[in-house]
């Protein structure tokens, strides 16, 4: 009998992996497969911070599969073509894989299912990436939710799947494999000098255990302070499936049971963030047009501006707004950005600079190691007020955000070192320093650090006028 192919995609681990767990229980040889999708990489921007993370995660997956007796087979090419070849080469009994909810994957997966089924090969797909799939969390009328809180309430009422646990040992025949392709071989530049975290299942578990034992209890207090290591930083690991979401949720449930009252609220807040991830997956699944377009159609008329100079200043972290600049430099240097900073830089690009959110989303795609299409799209549309969010339009004041969330300016000074000597009084608005002080500390505004590229009060007033015009045009 032919083997079972277990096709790995965004689920690069062996522990509590739905498809692998089930395949190894059948008792046939198992071929763990990863396909480097050359069609996909061709369409992506030339920079790709996530590639190194992916390569590291794959290298560890290979090691962990070996420990179970197996061998990771990697192939490079157009996904459908690779599967056509494998069908002939392996004559498999079955193919098992975990479901992916991104619009492009859904389309591709249905073609692959058809290919195998037509040849009489069994296809089994599993829920793995999410606790509850988009089709499971619906309104009483069977419609998708477009507001977070009712989605979260419905999500919480469902019974959560328990972790499956470990895969059994299995065998794999020696097969031709393309090896793990690095970013260079895929013609990707990786310009992140200090990646925030290494990829892989071991690191994912290490980080998770540390967060769970030391930080989750104070998450609610610390999660908004970018200078504090107070969030889980699990986002790249969740993106590449280096850890099981079922296991994380189960750990949260156990931690909640034994936690003190004050810590319970923190754990609940953390679980809410995991639900945001599922909410955005659900939104994109049900409204795939959001990949390209505004959820709120009135924004189709928004007269977005474009200035190369301003867009580059934003990308490089040279806007003259220290908190915005710290966020962008954190992204450029580490491939990750704190959530509070993501919200502020996105508001700044869309509301202050009045640039289209799609430009920002695609820059994040190049630089983020945790790039997750659904969350990135959701986060950008939320920030631009174009998305599934009923709150009135909000414009973050970058200076007030800075004073509130980085009161000791530790975050700013870490990522904008030219402001290191700026006294506390001026650090959130360095252009207000008297010229003599600028000279004395060696931070001349316009030379060592830019003056603000726009006046926040003036541009936000202009934005409000545009917003009202756009809305009234449609009413
Ligand atoms: C403009 C913008 C773009 C974003 N792009 C992405 C992206 O590409 N990939 C991504 O994973 N997150 C994205 N987010 C959401 C959020 O910023 C990150 O998930 C979070 O900062 C990751 O850090 P963490 O793992 O320490 O989060 P924690 O605070 O520890 O949260 C735990 C997990 O919950 C999920 N989560 C937390 N906040 C959100 C949120 N607002 N939306 C969806 N899921 C959330 C993530 O999986 C995260 O790892 C974006 C937010 C904004 C405002």
CATH architecture of the largest domain: Orthogonal Bundle
Count of discrete structural domains = 3
CATH class bucket of the largest domain: Mainly Alpha
Based on helices, strands and strand pairing, what is the structural class?
Answer: mainly alpha
Task: Classify the helix fraction into a percent range.
Answer: 40-55%
Count the beta strands: 5
Reported for the largest beta sheet, the result is: 5 strands, parallel
Number of helices: 20
The side-by-side strand order for the widest beta sheet comes to 3-2-1-4-5
CATH topology of the largest domain: DNA Cyclobutane Dipyrimidine Photolyase, subunit A, domain 3
Which series of helices and strands comes N to C?
EHEHHEHEHEHHHHHHHHHHHHHHH
* CATH H-level superfamily of the largest domain: DNA Cyclobutane Dipyrimidine Photolyase, subunit A, domain 3
- In round numbers, the mean pLDDT is 94
Uncertain stretches of 5 or more adjacent residues: none
Overview of this protein structure:
- With 475 residues, the chain is mainly α.
- It has helices at 18-24, 38-43, 50-67, 79-90, 103-118, 148-157, 201-215, 219-222, 235-239, 245-258, 261-286, 308-316, 322-334, 339-352, 357-367, 373-383, 398-405, 410-415, 435-441, 456-474, and strands at 4-8, 30-37, 73-77, 94-98, 122-126.
- Helix 10 (245-258) runs antiparallel to helix 11 and helix 11 (261-286) crosses helix 16.
- The radius of gyration is 24 Å and the shape is globular.
- The mean pLDDT is 94.
- Bound molecules: flavin-adenine dinucleotide (FAD).
């Amino acid at each position: 009998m032919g083997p079972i192919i277990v096709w790995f995609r965004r689920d690069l681990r062996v522990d509590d992996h739905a498809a692998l767990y089930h395949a190894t229980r059948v008792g046939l040889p198992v071929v763990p497969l990863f396909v480097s999708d050359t069609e996909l990489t061709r369409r992506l921007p030339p920079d790709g911070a996530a590639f190194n993370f992916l390569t590291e995660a794959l290298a560890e997956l290979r090691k962990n599969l070996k420990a179970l007796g197996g061998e990771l087979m990697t192939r490079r090419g157009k996904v459908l073509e690779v599967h056509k070849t494998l069908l002939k080469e392996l004559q498999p009994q079955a193919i098992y894989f975990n479901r992916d909810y991104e619009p492009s994957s859904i389309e591709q997966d249905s073609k692959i299912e058809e290919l195998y089924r037509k040849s009489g090969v069994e296809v089994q797909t599993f829920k793995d990436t999410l606790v509850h799939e988009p089709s499971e969390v619906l309104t009483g009328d069977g419609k998708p939710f477009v507001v977070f809180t009712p989605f979260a309430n419905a999500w919480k009422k469902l019974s959560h799947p328990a972790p499956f646990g470990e895969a059994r040992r299995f065998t794999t025949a020696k097969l031709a494999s393309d090896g793990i392709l690095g970013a260079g071989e895929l013609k990707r530049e990786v310009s992140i000098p200090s990646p925030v975290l290494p990829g892989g299942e071991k690191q994912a578990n290490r980080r998770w255990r540390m967060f769970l034992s030391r930080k989750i209890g104070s998450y609610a207090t610390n999660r908004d302070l970018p200078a504090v290591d107070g969030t889980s930083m699990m986002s790249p690991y969740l993106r590449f499936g280096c850890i099981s979401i079922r296991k994380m949720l189960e750990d949260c449930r156990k931690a909640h049971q034994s936690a003190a009252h004050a810590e319970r609220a923190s754990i609940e807040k953390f679980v809410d963030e995991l639900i945001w991830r599922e909410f955005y997956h659900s939104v994109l699944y049900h409204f795939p047009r959001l990949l390209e377009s505004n959820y709120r159609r009135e924004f189709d008329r928004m007269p977005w501006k474009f200035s190369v100079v301003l867009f580059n200043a934003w990308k490089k972290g040279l806007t003259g707004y220290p908190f915005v600049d710290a966020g962008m430099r954190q992204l450029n240097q580490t491939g990750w950005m704190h959530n509070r900073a993501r919200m502020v830089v996105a508001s700044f690009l869309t509301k202050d600079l009045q640039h289209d959110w799609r430009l920002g989303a695609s820059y994040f795609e190049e630089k983020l190691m945790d790039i997750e299409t659904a969350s990135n799209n959701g986060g950008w549309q939320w920030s631009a007020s174009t998305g599934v969010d009923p709150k009135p339009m909000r414009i973050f004041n970058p200076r007030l955000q800075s004073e509130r969330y980085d009161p000791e300016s530790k975050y700013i000074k870490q990522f904008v070192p030219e402001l290191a000597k700026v006294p506390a009084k001026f650090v959130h608005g360095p252009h207000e320093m008297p010229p003599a002080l600028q000279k004395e500390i060696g931070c001349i505004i316009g030379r060592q650090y830019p003056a603000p590229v726009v006046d926040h009060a003036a541009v936000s007033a202009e934005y409000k006028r545009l917003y009202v015009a756009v809305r009234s045009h449609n009413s």
